[in-house]
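ENTRY TYPE: paired fold submission
RECORD: A
CONTENT: sequence, then structure tokens
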Amino acid sequence: MPERLQFKPPQFLPRAGAWVKGIWRYGVFLAKGYCVRSPRVMVVATALALARLSYGVPLSDPAVDSYNVHVGTQTFAGLYQFTTNTLLVETAQAIQGIGSDTIKLYLGSNYLRQYNFALASQITNLVTLTRDDLSCRRVLDMPFRHVIAWTYPFANGDAPFTDGDYTPIEQANDYREVYDLAQYLLTNYNNSGKFFYLGHWEGDGYLNVNGWSTNPRPAVIQGMIAWENTRQKAVDDAKSNTAFTNVDVFYYAEANRVRDAMVNGSTNNQRVINVVVPYVTNLDFVSYSSYDAMDLASTPLYSTLDYIKSNLPVNKAIPSMGQRVWIGEYGWGGWSTAAQEPAGRAYIQRLLGWGPRFILFWEIYNNETNRNFCLIDSNGVKLASYYLHQRFINQARLALGRFEETNSRLPTDSEFGGLMGPGLSQPLLAPVSLTLSNLPATVTGSSATLTGQVAQGLYGDDQAEVWVFWGRQDGATVVTNWETGRRLGVNTNFNSATFRALVNGLQAQTNYYFRFYATNASGEAWAPSSALLSTQTLDPGDYGSRLRISLSGYDHLQVLANFPMLVALSTNLPGFSYSRFADANGGDLRFTDAVGSLIVPHEIDEWNPGGTSFVWVQMPQLAGTNDCIWAYWGNPLATNFPAWTTNGSTWLPPYEAVWHLKESGFPYMDSTRRYPLLSGNSPGSVVGVVGYGVLFDGSTQYLSPGSLSLSNAFTFSAWVKVDPSASGIQTICANKIEGWNRAGFALYVNTYLTSDHRLLLESGNGSAGQTAVTAPELVTPWCVASRGSRGEQTKRVCAAVRRWSRPNPDQRSPARFQQPSRIEPRALCRRQFYVQRVDGRNSHRAGSPLFGLDLGQLAVGGTEPGHGQLFPGCSSAGLPVAIGFRDCCGRELGRHRSRPCPVFGDQSGLPNPLDENT
């Protein structure tokens, strides 16, 4: 659409599959389901066309698809099902739903017990089972790359050697059916990229004598060695006698009493791993049903895996297959399903440090009455461990894609463990299909370059169309509210990709908003908020003084756009004088970008010509130690306060609410001009670390903004000073009282009945609750208390900022030169919303009214873990939760949790900045 045209149809950006075409002729616009007739409007020979969206190509990579991400699950003898499919097909589809390319299943004659249906009479051996049974064939044809199977020939019992007499006929039967099956799989799935692993259930179960309290009979041990060698030879011979490409079949033995062999005495230490496996001369793999090692720490766990590996015959190498050991089973079925997730996550984390080929959870559906060995329960509920697996697999494939994109290769197994292991230290967040952010715009005259980043969070999702919208009004998330939009292209990157648009013809001295947008088959997404760009400029020659403000203390990688920074102007600064202002109230104060001409918004927090004045300035970009802005004053022709000093532009749009608490009583104003604090029991006004704050009495005083409805991704921050003598819970903000399990949350200092100066975040749903706790002595004596809605870790990091001022060489009239001086910032805190200068005692007693900040209610939606739940343990419907804030630097909360929050200052115990270098 030509930028000069302002007329638009209501929906000129189509969603998936939609199309729009039109010709501006005789004022008629044609769109799908929309028609406008305006005979008085005529624009000749001007065409409008928005092409059909071209996404539909998945963002995936064959090399990533084929990479083994280790984790998976299996299906055996489930006790329930929910569809008209066979249990085998249904559970296989459920495993596909996790995103897994690995399945472990049963191949044998007993399908009635395993999958609740009887095999047809013509199914008489392993080949006819895999070839002719519709359910088995359907599952093997699914896009599972790794198929692990308990494999039992029809002609024999499961373990014919347990009687101590593994006869030649039994050996021949085993050999023939396993050989034929291996040959069929190699032929039928030739060039499919599939790997088949044929083996058996827990081998020590076949050697069980008196509950593993004694050694098995030598004849049974020898029979098992012969059984394993026979089946392994059948696989090897089939591979030798068959031509195949890009498919393979292997054999494995499974052990399950490994710790017995390692630590028991000689009378009961003979187990599969030490008396059978070493004598299977060409054994491909060992599977470890690891219930006896799940709770071991890393060192003994690795020793156990090393012991297994040391007993494997070394005469058979399998190129490019990694470790020849895997975890065939693990799980805590006797525990609650909630308790299993952290245990499983920690176990996977430890195992990745060693690198077993597979880590297989037991199992997708429960197979034991009154136990919890499942990822999906008997009510069809996907459990916490289900989401652990699903999110891990998705994150693993995204990480692999990003690694390959960066390094032009895939990671080794050890690199993969290092890539994925650290993230398992906490619950995995639900993936967000599309994440966008606006980066700082670059303005040159009447042109601007709009820059944004897009990242796709679902591996294999369709590539996203990326757009940018801009205009003189903030169109928010409604396409038709924007003056202009432009399609920028399709995202084809696993890593975050940067998109840019050069915009021409901007009006002078005008503020514009812009916002990036993306859409694909999963939906659509906007940058968290609109960004501001301005063509308003300043002529340096009109001002008598200027001051360069640099930020040498910011050394983080994240680029912060339109970031509010606090500048303190003080009579204690050498060479600084309020007498240089043309307006006694600071009306001629202006700030510009690093170039020194493009004006940026500011808000005067407190103006004090006799002392220190505090001003919040919207830093266009904070990316490194060389960034700076300029302050100008001393212009008698510019003494009227610009609109942005009072309309909230300095904070909007990323911030939802900002309370400085400088007022002496109600109303306490919100700098975004949306949520003033109008009710509560007003505390007293006192001097705080930045101007005036409030002193709560620790008993009855509180402030409330009423009810707010926000997204489930936000950060809350407060500047607090706790009385050193205060003991017990000191509330910063809360919307619940009394017990830890009450519905809502509370952010407070001090554990119950202590003075340990911990920062605690407590959440509950009415019946259960959780508490996140920092180390002791975090809050001393001043602290920026920060918590995110997705369990962010609290950060308290100090850094330095250098400032200097100089005379304005562009002054057209004689200038009074300033001496080098320093401006002390009091806070630089990214990703946070501020409640500033909450000074004094804040407490919370059971049964008493709230004090501190009573932050109203937040209703969030969603039923799956991580979707709509503000804190673990909170109800997902009508949750009474304290105020929420969107990410102030325009990012989805949780993507940058490792970034600390720098704190600057030189009063009341805060560290001083580094010495100035001018």
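RECORD: B
CONTENT: sequence, then structure tokens
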Amino acid sequence: MTWQYSNYSHVMFLTATVALILAVFAWRRHLNSISLPFIFLSLAVAQWTFFRALQAAVVEIPAKILWAKFAYVGIAGTPLFWLIFILRYSQQFHWLTRRHILAASILPFLTVLIAATNEQHNLLWSSFTPDTGIAGDYLIFHPGPWFVLFLIYSYSLIFIGVLVLLRMIRHAPKIYRHQAVGLLFGALIAWSGNIIYLSETNPWRGVELTPLTIAIACIIYVFIIFRYQLLDLMPMARDVLIENMNDGVIVLDAHNRIVDLNPAARRLIGAHNRIVDLNPAARRLIGDAANPSQTNDVEEALNKRFDLVTRYKNVTTAARDTIGINEDPPRYYDARITPLRDKDGHLTGRMIVLRDVSNLKQIEIEVLNQAQLVAQRLAELETIHDISQASASRLKVNALLEFVGEKILQTFKVQGVYIALHDKQENVFRVPYWQVYDERLNRAPVPFGQGLSGIIFSTKQPLVINNNYEQRSTELGVVRVPNSRGSIPKAWVGVPMIVGDEVIGILSAQDYHNENVFTDETVRLLTTIAANFGIAFQNAQLYEAAQQRAAELQDLHKEAEERVKELASINAIGQAAASQLEMGTLFELVGKKIYQAFDVEAVYIALYDQDTGLIHLPYWDSPQGQIGNRTMRLGEGLTSVIISSGQPLLIDHDYIPRSAELGVSRMPNYSGGLPKSWLGVPMRLGDKIIGVISVQDFKREYAFTPADIRLLATIAANVGIAIQNAQLYKATQQRETEVRHANEQLRVQLTEIEALQAQLREQAIRDPLTGLFNRRYLIETLDREVAQAVRASTPLSIIMIDLDRFKKINDTYGHKAGDVMLQTLGTLLATKTRDGDIACRYGGEEFIIVLPGASQTIAQRRAEQMRSTFEELRITYGGHILSATLSAGVAEFPLNGVDGESVLEDADKALYTAKSLGRNRVVVSETTSV
């Protein structure tokens, strides 16, 4: 399953945790007539919100439906447990018979069964619609008839409970009225959230308000539990409540003398033997003084333990205090003082209620610890989520290393982090990231198996050294390697990065200030980070390899483009030269074309007369414009060097010293200075050199590349031919024909290059024998088509086809006959499929057809048409009449699978069934996706 946590899912997890804590608190406090249904109510709410959180966090639609079914266990039980809790709280025991409870439980039990089997009848949900809101991807559940029945049942239970609470608020004493108001308010908030959600007036799209309002109700119930002792102070008769309650009740008269106390108070003050025992009449008449001789011992014990009489003797208004008793273990008591007055408002005494809240204090501490643990878990999840999100968005290895290293430094508050990676080729550990304090360290590769990293790699287990780093390292047989500052960590932890079963590296954190800082929680979180980072790192490596391959292909493409450009330039210059028979026009045209091809400042064309030894420059275009004809003798200038050697000459820097090295003293006289780069190539006719073409750049050194040399040499060859054609036009008609033929070859080469490029693109996705798409194209396309079907809420069907007894055809008539049969089937599939369908040769005699938008029924009909058509075909081969049949398996997404691969597997299984049933048939998959 794929998880995508949101704030909504986090709130649901927190609500489930609070509800579970309430259940645990009620269980540990004590069990009574209302705490037990309250426990079941809290567990139902916890189960509901927990699976609602999983439903919100998971990405796959089938998983969302699964968690929604699990949530219905809590949904079905919550209204019933709430009503049982309210009836017990209000002392309506005559309704809580076993028969009534069993009868009321039938419909929730049936609801859970119907939710679990909804695909067979659609009674609870008629359909599902995917959508996206502020809480992420979610499903819209369209209600069925049973959902309406269960809703009426639930609302009826809630309404009965509300009526009971309203009656209590009207008639109950004040303290119970506060409890009932809190219970009513929490229920109405949760109920209103469900009503808003079902009435489709929800202002937050994608957020189900019911669990959120239940979270608010849980907070209210927590308040009334601790503020008004919901589970401790229940409505009942005074004689039962006071005498049997665990809280100590002490009644003082107006003179601060004890006139009444219950057994719990006697135990609290430690006056079991010498205790006042007032009759019921004296207990009612608080103003009557008790016998001093009977109360002195009690008052003395009371003041000795609590100092209550002295502390509260002047209190005339209601007060509350917490009293701590220094015992082992310490005890804490919640003291409530209530003045007692007669009907005229005169003070007649005080009632003090003492509650032992020591366990409550402990529970409060535990709740705080649990809350801190939940906050820590949420922080860990946020850290892992941040790393996962960043890993998914950072496909550069170095950027990923930087982010994860910084995140570990921040999360664990350490001073050092390093990441070591295993280099399989050289069998060493490389440390691309090592940060200590604010210093980035560089470390040479470590031979594989050495150091603490080697121990972790061999054991595949985390390693923690919390103290005595040097001693522990020595005991492990490791020579310590301090950083460049010479610092040695006081605590060290390292975990393996495991992908599959392979350890690809080590992730380590170091603390240089404190010992014993790395706990099991640290190791667990660091291991989780390492697991996520390991996968992300491999993805980044694969991405960079793909990028490198793409760059190589781009370079090849660029080289091909340059080659095409060269050929185009050569072709253009060759055509221009071949079209001119007048020498001056020829040089002018060729010179301009060379300017355009090389983008330089100067070009000249020199002709060599072998008979006279003179070099003529009929064309020379420079920064000062065209220069008239010049003549020089062989041996003067760089042109002579090329004619003598017969090789191209490139001077890409240091023009003067390079020329001097070549024995050239004569330099061109340009007002703009000497060239920075100079290139010249010979013009040949066979083995005879007839001249030189040169280009010069006055702004850049290293301006010309080997490709430029090759291009200019090719141009020179064409120009040489054109010159000879111009000089010997009448005698060289055949030569002119050869030049045109050469130009035609160039055009053919360009056409062949373009055709080859198109052929390569087509061969990458086509089967060469049948012309259908190949398996590679199917793998690349299937997931995309499934995603499109999910977005459009349309079906997608797959037909898998296999030739029956194909081996017999090969064995009887030869493999060539088998190829003819495969080509015939490929042609049939190509002609019988729609434009949007995808027909592929899957391998051997197996073919796949993907039909977007087609249901299983349509796909079966299409497959049957192809089967019958192919069965009727007769193929003439080598004097034989060949025929064959085919078998096909059909499967549909999402009916037979949750993704493309699983649907393909079901189609394969259906094909296997068709084969086993006798071949020459179409079988539809019966597997359903749950």
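NOTES ON RECORD B: The two ends are 14 Å apart (CA to CA). The mean pLDDT is 77.
STATUS: closed
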